[in-house]
Design brief:
By secondary structure, the chain is of the alpha/beta class. The chain contains 8 helices and 8 strands. An 8-stranded mixed beta sheet has the order 4-5-3-2-1-7-6-8, with helices on both faces.
Length: about 210
């Protein structure tokens, strides 16, 4: 089983201090989105990296449509900058429309699960990255440009936890380097989170999917 974690993701509700800003008042979105709220965000700490629900969206689209997920060998999680963890059931169909996806995330923040009624396909819990990792079994691999260049198929084990940053630039907010068994780099340049996730999934498929 591969456990795939998008860690320190820049997914959050619009902070209360921004509510009265014109860029926010004129927006229907309750999810902080740099493409809509850029003018309002400059007063936020670490504003350059925040408001990136698009990273989460594309990452989940790729992960949940993968062969590995269809074979029942993948579990995907989103950990946020504010220490919330989203648990995604493998059978979840990720909405392809970006605005509708953000609406789904709003429901998740409001109700703690989606759909709000009936059995949840996504569930959000207040939980740190370390608390999530303590629940999972497998070799812990962190993907980072600071890591050692390795061929992915050589380091994949049948039970593995792959941790990928869910932010556009900078470093992890969580002390993740202390929590892992190996830090790996797969390319000499920064890659989008969804590309790193795709490479990890394909490497695992090549080794373990018959």
């Amino acid at each position: 089983m591969m456990h795939l974690i998008l860690a320190d993701s820049e997914l959050e509700l619009i902070p209360k201090k921004l509510i009265k800003h014109p860029a926010v008042r004129n927006s229907k979105s309750k999810i902080l989105d740099a493409s809509l709220h850029h003018a309002a965000m400059k007063g936020l700490k670490q504003w350059q990296r925040r408001g990136r629900p698009d990273i989460v969206h594309v990452f989940l689209l790729i992960a949940n449509e993968s062969i590995l997920n269809k074979e029942g060998m993948l579990r995907t999680y989103v950990h946020t900058r504010n220490d919330e963890v989203i648990y995604i059931k493998p059978e979840t169909r990720i909405i392809k429309n970006y605005n509708r996806f953000k609406g789904l995330m709003e429901q998740l923040f409001e109700h703690g699960k989606v759909p709000p009624e009936n059995e949840a396909l996504m569930e959000m819990k207040k939980e740190s990255l370390e608390e999530l990792l303590d629940k999972l079994e497998g070799k812990r691999i962190l993907f980072s440009m600071d890591g050692e260049k390795r061929k992915l198929e050589n380091i994949m084990e049948e039970d593995v936890i792959c941790i990928i940053g869910g932010f556009p630039s900078g470093d992890f907010l969580s002390p993740v380097h202390k929590m892992v068994d190996e830090v790996v780099s797969i390319y000499h340049e920064m890659l989008p989170a969804w590309i790193v996730g795709m490479e990890a999934i394909v490497a695992y498929e090549n080794k373990f999917v018959k």
